[in-house]
Amino acid sequence: MDQPSRSAGTVRPGGRTARVRAAVLEATQDELVERGFHGLTMDQVAARAGVGKTTVYRRWGSTPGLVADLMNELANQSADHADTGSVEEDLRANALAVLDALNDGRLGVTFQAVIAAATSDEQAAQALRGFYLRRIEEWAKVVDLAVRRGELPEGTDGGEVIRAVSAPLYYRLVVTREPVTRVVAEQSVARTLAAARAGAFVVAAPPG
């Protein structure tokens, strides 16, 4: 799936409320990068953002609340799916976007911090799940387009194809701690595409 810009602190129109939210979310991301989830505190985020502690506590309530809003904003900033006219090129664009994000010194560390938090905090887990479900849904559209063009079998599950493309990259990042390289990304695309063309991701019709 495609990934968002490196920072969640982009200021959008909307006056002071929008500016405060942007500052707080950027501060949250900074703190996650520097201290990790378990080092994240409401007071430190408020100080870094230059806003009152009461504002942060009132609006976000807790550090998981900050992380949830951060992930929502990162999802909002993410680009739409590719549409090159070729499923291979679309999946490659997806894999390379994931690769670029995971190897980025800011965004990659943000994801690692939230993934770690998700193992012990349900609200962080929900925030992470929500982010990826939105991105999977967006990129699954390239598979639907490929099915319509006759590149993939009818009934191919787009979400499962997108998961299969990025899974080896995340496995190396989080589990084996191996380098996540372009070679890995390209191999993942080739293997996933071969499996998809062979019908491995076709969803069986419900009986009756």
TrEMBL record:
The keyword Zinc-finger does not apply. Transmembrane segments: none annotated. InterPro entries: DNA-bd_HTH_TetR-type_CS, Homeodomain-like_sf, HTH-type_TetR-like_transc_reg, HTH_TetR, Tet_transcr_reg_TetR-rel_C_sf, TetR_C. Residues 41-60 bind DNA. SUPFAM superfamilies: Homeodomain-like, Tetracyclin repressor-like, C-terminal domain. GO terms for molecular function: DNA-binding transcription factor activity; transcription cis-regulatory region binding. Pfam families: TetR_C_11 (PF16859), TetR_N (PF00440). It comes from the Bacteria. Residues 18-78 form the HTH tetR-type domain. Keywords: DNA-binding, Transcription, Transcription regulation. This is Transcriptional regulator, TetR family.
